[in-house]
Amino acid sequence: MRGVRKSIVVSLVGVVLLAPAACSDRSGTAVSEPPATTTVSAADPTGDEATTSASLPYTETELQVTGSTGRVTYDVLIPQIEGGDPAVTAEFNESMRAALQDQIDGWGTDAFTLSSQEHSVAHIGEHVVSGLLVTSWNADPPGAHPTPIVATVVVNADTAAPITLDDLFPDLPAGLQALSDSSARLLPETVAGPDFERSGIEPTEANFANWLATPAGMEIHFNDYQVGPHAIGLVTITVPWDDLADVIDPELAPVVSS
């Protein structure tokens, strides 16, 4: 997962929470209150309806982040979660904000804009939460076409820690080679076709940095141009967990597949 750092809180200029009403601070920037939510829970044995936030299920929400650094202007919706274990919720939400901040900070010295393309809490499992963020990068003034930028976050719901490729594969080179081999088998059946770009699946961390944990397998999201031309769009494959059984950490296998 590119740019995911454990428990790093990223402060963004001009963060705006989606809400039905807003007020203004001294600088004139709109500051909205979080949307009201209603949760219905089962009564406890005493008949009380009260419950703690940790006992509530995780639910998907979103955060609108807007602002400008002078060089970069951004207006992006990022996936967030509510409820559940507060430590897990905080880790996931902060990691998603950090992923966006990496995109704001990490693209050269030219002016550009970032806007929303796709965002989702892709999977909320018993032991894991996965999120996807795809922004649209465009030169300022606009260039030939926007470029999508992909980021993913995977958090262990048992430990409230992000799961990295290093965590997933005790022998990282062996794990990356298994991903490369599976990609070579799966990509010909995608829009990339049999003539996909081979350099995009070499066994490097950069090539497999964007992944999600799902019950079906390790969902790999390739970057624009990584395995084919821009015209085919972003390409995704799902590597079955069985393909990785010999290289995955046995303690994490039941976590990521939940």
Automatic annotation (TrEMBL):
Domain DUF3298, chain residue ranges per copy: 167-242
Keywords of this entry: Signal
Superkingdom of origin organism: Bacteria
Region span, Disordered: 26-54
InterPro entries with a match to the protein in the record: DUF3298 (IPR021729), PdaC/RsiV-like_sf (IPR037126)
Start-end of Polar residues biased regions: 26-41
Keyword Signal: yes
Signal peptide (UniProt feature, chain positions): 1-21
Protein name: DUF3298 domain-containing protein
Organism placement in taxonomy: Bacteria, Bacillati, Actinomycetota, Actinomycetes, Mycobacteriales
